[in-house]
């Protein structure tokens, strides 16, 4: 009997899970959360965004609700004023309420690449994307460091509300000036802005949990120290992905990591990348200036759900961390 009950436990638990409603919050939530909907976002994309910002409790609660609608909901790109911990129904109603859409408002998350910042600014304002791209291509008038070849790294991630008829150049300068303000507040001298932003942009893309930012910074600084890492290779997948134009990824292929023609490829080019790979916020800037103390040379995020990361000093320790990550991946095939 015991063995039979044990054998049935798996199928029974799967049946219960299949018949239970997905986890969902109740009511209209509390507080304020600005959510950005982008042109081309699918229902799945929006569900993930809402979960990431704790607007809804689960992906399935919102996505299943979308599938149950008699007609496909239409969402206009832009910024929407929602609340924290809303029911899926309340979130859907809010997204379809024209009053929820915030005029001339743009939400720029930390780590967003410049190409995506421009798209978000166009979606949230009345400024044509072509005008923003043209303004971004003319670097005069922004006061950037001499090394800069684009606005990458200097578009501070935050929420912005613009006045009507703001020009593309003035809108972009608002973000640049805000990044300079962040650097000044952090105590970064103008002469050090470039190297600080390059390192911070790398930390922003590679770190997960708040406390890990400072450890990731230490790993990269240790790898820049010839006494600890003689090749000088940072071996950051995020830099390689950026150089391929895949600004939303931090994963790469063997061929991409071997590509010497990718100027951002830190697997083959020693030292910091040739430029910023994202637009970092205050935390990444602070980590670049105040790395944690440690001898770590490696890190691997072994739990992609929680962001938990293992930092190691030796190859053997790192291999053990990678093995733990691979075991976790075997248990979570949805991550591919």
What does this molecule look like?
This protein is mainly α. It has 3 domains: 73 residues, 2-Layer Sandwich (Dna Ligase, domain 1), CATH 3.30.1490.480; 77 residues, no CATH class; 144 residues, no CATH class. The chain contains 13 helices and 7 strands. Helix 3 crosses helix 4. The longest helix has 18 residues.
The portion of residues assigned to helices is 40-55%
Strand percentage, roughly?
5-15%
Q: Biggest sheet, in brief?
A: 3 strands, antiparallel
Low-confidence stretches: 1-17
Distance between termini? Answer: 38 Å
Based on Cα principal axes, name the global outline.
Answer: globular
Please, what is the average pLDDT? 91
Total count of helical runs of at least 4 residues:
13
What class would the helix/strand composition place it in? mainly alpha
Report the C-alpha radius of gyration, rounded: 22 Å
Biggest sheet: strands side by side, in what order? 1-2-3
Compute the number of strand runs. 7
User: What is the chain-wise order of helices and strands?
Assistant: HEHHEHEEHHEHHHHHHEEH
Please indicate the count of domains.
Answer: 3
């Amino acid at each position: 009997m015991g063995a039979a009950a044990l054998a049935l436990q798996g199928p029974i638990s799967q049946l219960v899970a299949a018949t239970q409603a997905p986890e969902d919050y109740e009511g209209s939530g509390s507080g304020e959360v600005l959510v950005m909907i982008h042109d081309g976002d699918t229902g799945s994309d929006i569900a993930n965004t809402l979960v990431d910002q704790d607007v809804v409790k689960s992906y399935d609660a919102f996505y299943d609700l979308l599938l149950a609608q008699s007609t496909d909901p239409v969402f206009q790109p832009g910024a929407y004023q929602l609340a924290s911990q809303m029911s899926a129904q309340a979130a859907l109603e809010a997204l379809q309420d024209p009053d929820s859409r915030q005029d001339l408002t743009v939400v720029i998350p930390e780590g967003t690449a410049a190409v995506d910042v421009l798209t978000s600014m166009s979606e949230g304002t009345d400024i044509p994307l072509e005008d923003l791209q043209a303004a971004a291509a003319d670097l005069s008038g922004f006061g950037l460091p001499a090394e800069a070849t684009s606005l990458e790294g200097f578009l501070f991630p935050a929420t912005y509300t613009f006045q009507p008829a703001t020009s593309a150049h003035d809108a972009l300068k608002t973000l640049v000036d805000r990044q300079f303000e962040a650097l000044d507040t952090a105590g970064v001298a103008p002469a050090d802005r470039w190297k600080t932003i390059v390192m911070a942009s790398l930390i922003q893309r590679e770190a997960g949990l708040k406390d890990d930012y400072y450890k990731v910074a230490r790993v990269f600084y240790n790898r820049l120290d010839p006494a600890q890492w003689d090749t000088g290779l940072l071996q950051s997948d995020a830099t390689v992905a950026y150089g391929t134009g895949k600004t939303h990824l931090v994963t790469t292929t063997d061929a991409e990591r071997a590509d010497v023609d990718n100027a951002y490829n830190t697997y083959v080019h020693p030292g910091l990348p040739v430029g910023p790979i994202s637009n970092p916020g205050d935390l990444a800037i602070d980590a670049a200036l105040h790395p944690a103390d440690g001898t770590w040379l490696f890190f691997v995020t072994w739990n992609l759900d929680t962001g938990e990361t293992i930092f190691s000093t030796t190859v053997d320790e790192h291999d053990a961390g990678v093995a733990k990550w691979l075991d976790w991946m075997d248990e979570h095939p949805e991550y591919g």
